[in-house]
Amino acid sequence: MRPQNVLPFERTIFELEEQLSKLESEPSTPGTLETIRNMRADIAKLKREVFDNLDAWQTVQVARHQERPQTRDYIDLCCDEFLELHGDRAYGDDPAIVTGLAKIDDFRVMFIGQQKGRTLKERTQCYYGCAHPEGYRKALLKMEMAAKYKLPIVCLIDTPGAYPGIGAEERGQAYTIAYNLREMSRLGVPIICTVIGEGGSGGALGIGIGDHVAMLQFSYYSVISPEGCASILWKSGKFADKAARALRFTGKDLLQFGVVDEVLPEPLGAAHRDHRLMAATMKAMFVRQLRTLSALSPSEILNRRYEKFRRLGVFEEQTATTASV
Amino acid sequence: MTMATSPNSGSAEQPGRPKRGVPEGLWLRCDSCGNTVFRRQVEKQLYLCPDCGHHFYVPSRVRIAQLLDPDSFEEWYDNLRPADPLSFVDSRPYKDRLKAETKRTGLTEACIVGRGYLRGRPLVIGITDSAFIMGSMGSVVGEKLTRAIEEATRLLLPLVIISGSGGGARMHEGILSLMQMAKVSAALGRYHEVGGLFISVLTNPTMGGVAASFASLGDIIIAEPKALIGFAGPRVVEATVKVALPVGFQTSEFLLEHGFVDRIVARPQLQIELSKLIDYCVR
Predict the structure, then answer these.
(1) Which of A118, B37, B134, B166 has the least C-beta neighbours within 10 A?
(2) Which residues of B touch A316 (CB under 8 A)?
(3) CB contact under 8 A, A246 and B89
(4) pLDDT tens, B13-61?
């Protein structure tokens, strides 16, 4: 039962769980039953203690966990139907961004999500969730189609960043992301964005302009990867833990900065321990937001979205000088 | 988003070959031809190398003087100052870094905006200055540009933004820097809707979050010759793909060849080209 990928701070939990399952497989005596009861309580308590106090770098490790649910898992668990739509009509079909029509409860939506891949083969095809320009182009094309037919859009963000390769540069990675930012701000249908794992800078923002932006408790959303930041400012990727703390990119801080509207609680021991419960929490949020946002007119949606991003930023405004036309 | 390109804080500061008895700063070494050239001569010729025409870094205020009609520039929002929302500390506190950059460059931030006249044509102009924390975009750069774009929208004036940003979105302000990309791009969306003309001029270097937002959104995109322009820094790309990068990768010429730049314009022609472009689109 013990999964292959155990994070350092999970080790004790898994050891206890192993002992527990061994104990449970043995014939029970009144004594063992009590031990089992106590152990179960201890494990729950330990999980809570560990996961309530994760620092930023540990959060990154959870966000990157190989068994963490990905876009295709959420599609399976949240959607009653999914009709995948492929291709950007210009270059190809990027598997790192999955797009398609989906039913969530009573709502028909356009579902867009970044996919890292589970098997080695899938991970290689998806470049570990790093999309190319054709992925961003595909996403926008499907979103525009959704806007035409008044379908709300759901975006799941999970990427270390847009792919930094030669082909990506040749095909206009910077332009494609920039264009998505501008055009997503102009789509008159509700857009709900959720960071489900890694929110890696421009690659995340490229499908991240929404009316409701949520993130999962153990995800992160950052201007740069902690390793990238460390290699520039601390001159070595080894200081990624320091950079992670300095960047203030976990849910609590982002909520305070107004960058996200909601942090969704994860199951005890994080999403990778219970895909179903995580998906149920997320689906409930989708339904809640779809109900609220569907009541708004297109112009209300556009104005709200503009103001939502317009407000972001922290600076000082000195009063002595005049600054208007 | 934030890119590691060579800290370019003005090629002007790179020491040339040491020469006995010559006061420091009188001479520059050209990055392109390697010749040692007289600084005054470079400055007189629009910051071009007299030997090979290499485009040196131009301070933003000098750029204004090069492009706009004398005394026509009215600076806007110069009362905005960076804050330190993350209380960010790397090798030194961000606050100290800001002070040092201001002292070194005479700038309060990496961007100036305002209105003025270019060969008699009114416009709104924004310039990011690669000398100030690599021209990176934090909250102030994002806010200044957004306000300038909103004013251009209100006044229906053409908009020119000249980008020189090796740093992309500024790490020291974290996620808020990333959000400036969204904010500025959304403002450009509204400007686009009212039919505003936006000419984006890319200079060396334009990378990361700046390239992946306003700099790429011009109706017309112009680049100065041989500028470094791209999304990911060349070192990051090289480390990812683990093969040698093609010659001329991420230069203006590379972008022109791949269809992401309309024209490459050498600095002596920039002003006249901009005025011609404005005349085609603005009545």
Answers:
(1) A118
(2) 80-83
(3) yes
(4) 444 444 455 455 889 999 899 999 999 999 999 999 999 999 999 999 9
DSSP string, B168-203: -B-GGGTHHHHHHHHHHHHHHHHHHHTT--EEEEEE
> How far is residue A116 CA from its own chain's centroid?
11
- Contact partners, residue A94, CB within 8 Å, separation at least 6: A88, A131, A132, A134, A135, A138
Shortest CA distance from B176: residue in chain A? A313
CATH number of B57-281: 3.90.226.10
Position B1 scores a pLDDT of 52
Question: What single DSSP character describes residue B208?
Answer: H
Q: What is the DSSP letter of A250?
A: B
| Interface predicted TM-score (ipTM) of this complex, two decimals | 0.95
Q: Quote the minimal CA–CA distance from B53 to chain A in Å.
A: 27
Tell me, rounded to whole angstroms, the distance of Cα A298 from its chain centroid. 26
Distance CA B162, CA B171 (A): 21
Secondary-structure class of domain A60-310 per CATH:
alpha beta
Q: What are phi and psi of A311, to 5 degrees?
A: -70, -20
| Single-letter amino acid, residue A107 | F
Instruction: Answer whether residue B123 shows pLDDT above 90.
Output: yes
- Domain ranges (residues) in chain B: 26-56, 57-281
Q: Which residue bears the tokens 């379908």?
A: A151
Q: How far is CA A292 from CA A118, A152, A286, A302, in A?
A: 34, 12, 10, 15
Quick check: helix, strand or coil at residue A82? strand
Give the tokens for residue A31. Answer: 């004594």
Structure tokens at A313: 């930023």
**Domain residue ranges in chain A:** 10-53, 60-310
Determine the residue type at B63.
R
Element (H, E) at A231: helix A226-233
Q: Give the global pTM.
A: 0.93
